[in-house]
Specification:
disordered N terminus; globular; 32% helix; alpha+beta; five-stranded antiparallel sheet
Length: 214
C-alpha cells in the first residue's frame, strides 16, 4: 500500500474540476449511472471502445507504466475526449451539476487505486463481476484524474467514480485486496482523503492526512 510517511504533503483539490469530471462520467454512463446492468455485462459496460485508446495512452504498460508528467497530460486529454464525445452523443439521460456535486459527498462514490501496488492477481474480479479487472483497474469510463503528492515522493494514484450500485461490490473487493492497493476516498474541507487502504467504507475514516495534487 502507499507509504504513509509522506502524508504531510498536502494541497487542496480542485473541487469544480472534479465535479465536472464526475458529471461527464455520469453523463457518459447514462442509465448505467443508476441501474445495475446484468452481472455478465458489468465487466464491459464502462469500458467503452470510444475511450480505449485514450485510456491506454495514460497507462501504456498497465500497472507498470511510468506515471510522469506525460501521463498527467494524457489523463487531461482523456477527460477532454470523454467530454467532447459525450456532448456529441444523443443521450436521453441527462444530469445536472447539482447531482454531480452530490456524488462528491456520497459514501462509496470515489475510489483511489495505486497501480504501483497492484498484486495483479485477479482476486477482485469475482466479487465485482469484472468491474475491477485482473490488475485492479476500475473501468476507464469512470476515471477522473491522476493524483500525485506535492513532493513526488509516492506513486501516483488513479481516482475514479463508482456508481451507487457498485459500492457494495467494491467493499468486497477491498476485503480480498492483499496489497491494499485500493481505498475509498472522500472530499473533506477541500481536500481529498483516503479512508483506508484495503478497508471497506465502514471500517475507514477521513483521518489519514494524505492529500494529492494534479
Amino acid at each position: 500500500m502507499p507509504d504513509g510517511s509522506d502524508r504531510k504533503h498536502m494541497i487542496p483539490v480542485d473541487r469544480e474540476q472534479l465535479r465536472d469530471r464526475v458529471l461527464y462520467a455520469m453523463y457518459w454512463a447514462g442509465h448505467v449511472t443508476a441501474a445495475r446492468p446484468p452481472d455478465t455485462a458489468i465487466a464491459g459496460c464502462l469500458r467503452s471502445d470510444a475511450f480505449a485508446r485514450d485510456a491506454v495512452a495514460v497507462f501504456p504498460n498497465g500497472q507498470f507504466s511510468v506515471l510522469d508528467d506525460a501521463a498527467l497530460v494524457a489523463m487531461g486529454s482523456f477527460s477532454k475526449a470523454r467530454r467532447a464525445i459525450a456532448d456529441l452523443r444523443q443521450n436521453p439521460v441527462r444530469f445536472t451539476w447539482q447531482e454531480a456535486e452530490a456524488e462528491l459527498t456520497r459514501a462509496r462514490s470515489l475510489l483511489l487505486f495505486s497501480p504501483a501496488a497492484s498484486p495483479f492477481d485477479g482476486a477482485a474480479v469475482p466479487d465485482t463481476h469484472g468491474f475491477i479487472n485482473d490488475d485492479y483497474f476500475p473501468p476507464w469510463d469512470t476515471w477522473l484524474d491522476l493524483l500525485v503528492d506535492a513532493a513526488r515522493q509516492s506513486p501516483a494514484l488513479l481516482l475514479s467514480w463508482v456508481p451507487r450500485w457498485a459500492g457494495s461490490m467494491i467493499d468486497l473487493a477491498l476485503s480480498v485486496d492483499p496489497a491494499g492497493c485500493m481505498s475509498w476516498a472522500e472530499v473533506v474541507d477541500g481536500k481529498l482523503f483516503p479512508r483506508g487502504w484495503g478497508q471497506a467504507w465502514e471500517h475507514g475514516g477521513s483521518n489519514s492526512g494524505l492529500k494529492f495534487t494534479r
